[in-house]
Every structure is written in structure tokens, then in C-alpha cells.
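Field log, afternoon session.

UNIT: design team B
ACTIVITY: writing a sequence onto a fixed backbone
BACKBONE:
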């Protein structure tokens, strides 16, 4: 009897255990759903005082739209408002740039709602600045309210990045929506932020700060003095610049060198796309350092090929002339500069005329984003950009032992061969002499001083000069003795507008 009682008690215990597990199963499942929707906050500053509200992924059952659940993770409060809309993680195929995984719902005026944008980047960029980035429907506009200025900006091939300034006092709720053409706005995503004290990405980068502009356009902030006119010089400075240029030429002539000094000037993207610069920066149009500098060096006898008008004429081409997440021009932009430069030189040396456009194939490709990433505390693969690159249908000469033949690829690739628009300057930045691999032509020689904008231009010009002597990038020291010893036909400077300051007084 005792053994039978023990068996009965054991059987009842097992039954009770099964019933309890059955009752707990829905609760455990709900916990799993909430955990799946926790958004990891990346970066050192991003894990503080931050709220992200979104629609949960893979919701299979209808839920109470007023129900709110809160889970703490990584020192950040993450609030999920559950609704009956069935969604999954937004994925974007860049061939069509159309997210395919959310079930469309109706919004105001019976329009289909824009799909909820995916948020991949969410962190403080400065103590009172918050950046949000990721992917959305192609052509969608992104709106963020709640900051000290409303942000309403376009996306780029389904990629977006915004920087929102907010108040220094109290907690601030930022609200973001996306709106695709012909659709109602998406549901809101909210971020609760407050002023920080120790966000020092710009100071820690050791280079420049970043201005996150409209339509996914980004700039290094050393373009701002040219944009706002805060770096203008005096008339006496212009006159002194003229005298220095005259002395460079007279020193060359005294040593028997008749080289023409030519500046190939690449304008700042802020000058080409002022509409993409945040409204808090005022575009000063009365005068520019560029104009003043041109006046001084041309009066001194040098030639300036200013590409500003050319870039303005091509700013809306099918192919980008500037990357949007990198501070440099694209290979297509560089091609336009090459074509202009060599057409000028061909007036004296017809054989140096630029190759026909059919020798190059330009294409758009989605890759990891560019050199702004480190300055705002991100990883290279956190965001993407669809930008323009070139295939060369010939083998341009070069002086890089890692490339026996073909075009030297200046762009970054990680171990998984994922390309980036970030330029690896080390592949072409060292001092070098390159000779053309073409024969039977009367080509000029050149001594070239340059900044990093010469990188995308490099392969275009190496077969257009009989001998091209490249100084190391950013080395603008002018040695008349060394140049005269080489006796080139041209002393060529390749510089961007933001680097005029580097050649202003040398």
C-alpha cells in the first residue's frame, strides 16, 4: 500500500508539473518575442539614455495595439509598441532597392503605408547631436521631428543617414517616419535622447568633424570655411600670392626650365550641392577664397583649371561625381576632370588628348561606406552606399609592385572581399615616377604635386605623359632646383578646394 501511495503521489506531481509548464509556455514565448526585438545599441555613447520604439518582427498573432512592453538592455530603455501589423526585418535588394518583407497596410487617404525603415545606426555623434541611419524604401523621404530643427531629407538608393540637433536641457523625444512616393508615411519610430558630456568622436579622430547633410550627403567640416566665407584673405594677401607665384616661375626660368605651372582645382562638394548642406550653415556667395586664390596665382603667371562649372553641369548625371559617404570624388568625377585637363594639354601636345569615353566603363555598385565612418564612431560596414566606379579597357602604367598589369584598385576591400568607397591612399600616395607604355607618340612630361583627390585620377593620367614624376601626397614643397633638374613640360598641382590653404603661402 505504501508503494502504491508513493506511485500515486508521484503521478500527481508529474501531472501538476506538466500543467504548470503548459501554463507558462505562452509567457515564455512572449519573452522570446520581446528578446528578438531588442535592438543592440552600438558605440560607446549610444548605450546611454536612449529609447527606440518599433513594430516587432515575426508577430504571428493579433495583439492589443495599446499593449506596451518594456525591456532593459545595455543601459538603454527599449520600448516596443505591439500592433497587428505583421512585419519582418527589412531587407533591401540594391538592384531594385525595394524592401520585400513587410505586409502593406493602409494609412491616411487609404494609401498604402510606407514600410517601416530599418535602423542600423543610432547613437550620439556630439553631445547634443544624434545620428540615425539604415535602409528604407527606394525614393523615401525621411522626416525627424522633436529636435531643434526639423529634418526632412531624401534617401539614396534606399540608404539614409540623418543627424539631429536637440536641446541641451531635459529629455527630448525624436520621432522619425519614412514616406515613399505615392504612399502614406510609415509608422513612427521614436528615440528619447538627452544631452551628453563626453562624446568626443570628432576630437578623437585627429582629422576633421563631419557634417551630415541632406539626401545622404556627408562632408568633412573643413569644407565649412569655404562655404561660409570665414576664410577670406585680404587684398595684400592676394598681391603677396601673386609675387610668390611670379618667383616660382622666375626661379624655374633662371635654371633653364620652361615648365608651365597648372593647377587642377576640384571644388568642394558643398559648393556643388549647397542644397544638401544643413540649414544651420549659411552659404556665403559674395566672395570666396577660391576666387581670391585664383586671382593671385593667375596674375602671377600660373594656369588654373577650375572644375567648378564642369561639376555643376554634371551634378545630376546618372553616375555620381562625388561619393556621398566619402570625402572624395568618384572615378566618374575624376574622369571628367581628366578629360578637361588633357584637352587643355592637347592644345600643345595633341597626342596627349584624352582617351575616348569608350575606353572606360562606369557602373554603380552597392558597397560599404567611406571615410566619414571613423570620425562619427562607426564601423566601416555599418552603412552602405551605392556609388560609381570604373573599369579600364586597357592597362594603364603604374608603379605599384602589387599590381603587375591593369588598373590599380584604390578602394578598400575587407577579408570577405566586400568593397568600400574608402580610398586606400597608400596604394598610390608614395613618391614615384611612371612612364607611359605607349610608343610613337609625342607626349609631355609632368612633375605632379597632389592631395588625395589625385588618387581616383591617378590611373587616368599615367599613360598621357611620357614621364610623370609624382611627389608624395600632401607634400607641396616647391624645389625649383629639383624641378629644373627633371625639366618637365608641366608642373601640375592636383588639389581640392578645401586644400587651397595648403598651397596658399608656400
Amino acid at each position: 500500500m505504501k508503494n502504491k501511495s508513493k506511485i500515486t503521489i508521484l503521478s500527481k506531481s508529474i501531472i501538476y508539473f506538466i500543467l504548470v509548464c503548459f501554463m507558462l509556455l505562452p509567457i515564455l514565448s512572449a519573452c522570446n518575442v520581446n528578446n528578438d526585438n531588442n535592438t543592440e545599441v552600438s558605440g560607446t555613447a549610444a548605450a546611454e539614455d536612449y529609447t527606440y520604439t518599433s513594430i516587432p518582427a515575426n508577430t504571428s498573432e493579433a495583439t492589443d495595439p495599446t499593449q506596451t512592453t518594456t525591456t532593459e538592455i545595455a543601459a538603454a530603455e527599449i520600448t516596443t509598441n505591439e500592433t497587428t501589423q505583421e512585419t519582418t526585418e527589412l531587407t533591401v535588394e540594391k538592384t531594385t532597392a525595394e524592401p520585400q518583407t513587410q505586409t502593406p497596410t493602409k494609412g491616411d487617404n487609404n494609401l498604402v503605408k510606407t514600410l517601416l525603415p530599418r535602423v542600423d545606426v543610432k547613437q550620439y555623434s556630439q553631445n547634443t547631436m544624434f545620428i540615425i541611419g539604415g535602409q528604407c524604401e527606394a525614393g523615401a523621404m525621411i522626416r525627424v521631428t522633436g529636435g531643434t530643427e526639423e529634418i526632412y531629407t531624401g534617401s539614396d538608393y534606399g540608404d539614409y543617414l540623418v543627424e539631429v540637433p536637440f536641446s541641451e536641457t531635459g529629455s527630448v523625444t525624436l520621432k522619425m517616419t519614412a514616406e515613399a512616393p505615392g504612399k502614406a508615411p510609415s509608422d513612427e519610430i521614436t528615440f528619447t535622447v538627452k544631452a551628453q558630456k563626453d562624446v568626443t568622436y570628432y576630437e578623437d579622430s585627429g582629422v576633421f568633424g563631419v557634417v551630415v547633410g541632406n539626401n545622404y550627403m556627408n562632408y568633412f567640416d573643413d569644407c565649412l570655411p569655404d562655404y561660409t566665407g570665414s576664410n577670406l584673405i585680404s587684398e595684400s594677401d592676394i598681391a603677396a600670392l601673386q609675387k610668390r607665384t611670379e618667383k616660382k616661375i622666375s626661379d624655374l626660368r633662371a635654371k633653364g626650365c620652361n615648365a608651365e605651372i597648372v593647377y587642377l582645382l576640384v571644388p568642394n562638394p558643398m559648393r556643388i550641392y549647397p542644397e544638401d548642406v544643413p540649414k544651420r550653415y549659411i552659404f556665403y556667395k559674395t566672395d570666396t577664397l577660391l576666387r581670391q586664390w585664383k586671382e593671385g596665382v593667375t596674375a602671377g603667371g600660373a594656369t588654373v583649371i577650375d572644375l567648378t562649372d564642369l561639376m555643376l553641369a554634371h551634378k545630376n548625371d546618372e553616375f555620381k561625381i562625388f561619393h556621398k559617404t566619402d570625402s572624395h570624388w568618384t572615378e566618374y568625377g575624376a574622369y571628367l576632370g581628366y578629360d578637361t585637363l588633357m584637352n587643355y594639354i592637347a592644345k600643345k601636345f595633341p597626342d596627349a588628348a584624352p582617351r575616348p569615353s569608350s575606353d572606360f566603363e562606369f557602373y554603380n555598385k552597392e558597397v560599404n561606406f567611406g571615410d566619414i565612418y571613423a570620425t562619427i564612431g562607426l564601423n566601416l560596414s555599418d552603412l552602405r552606399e551605392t556609388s560609381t566606379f570604373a573599369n579600364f579597357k586597357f592597362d594603364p602604367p603604374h608603379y605599384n609592385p602589387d599590381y603587375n598589369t591593369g588598373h590599380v584598385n584604390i578602394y578598400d576591400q575587407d577579408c570577405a572581399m566586400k568593397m568600400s568607397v574608402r580610398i586606400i591612399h597608400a596604394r598610390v600616395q608614395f613618391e614615384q615616377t611612371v612612364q607611359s607604355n605607349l610608343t610613337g607618340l609625342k607626349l609631355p612630361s609632368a612633375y605632379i604635386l597632389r592631395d588625395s583627390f589625385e588618387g581616383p585620377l591617378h590611373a587616368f593620367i599615367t599613360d598621357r605623359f611620357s614621364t610623370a614624376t609624382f611627389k608624395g601626397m600632401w607634400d607641396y614643397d616647391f624645389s625649383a632646383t629639383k624641378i629644373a633638374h627633371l625639366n618637365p613640360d608641366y608642373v601640375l598641382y592636383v588639389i581640392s578646394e578645401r586644400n587651397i590653404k595648403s598651397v596658399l603661402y608656400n
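LOG NOTE: The radius of gyration is 29 Å.
NEXT ACTIVITY: expression trials, pending approval
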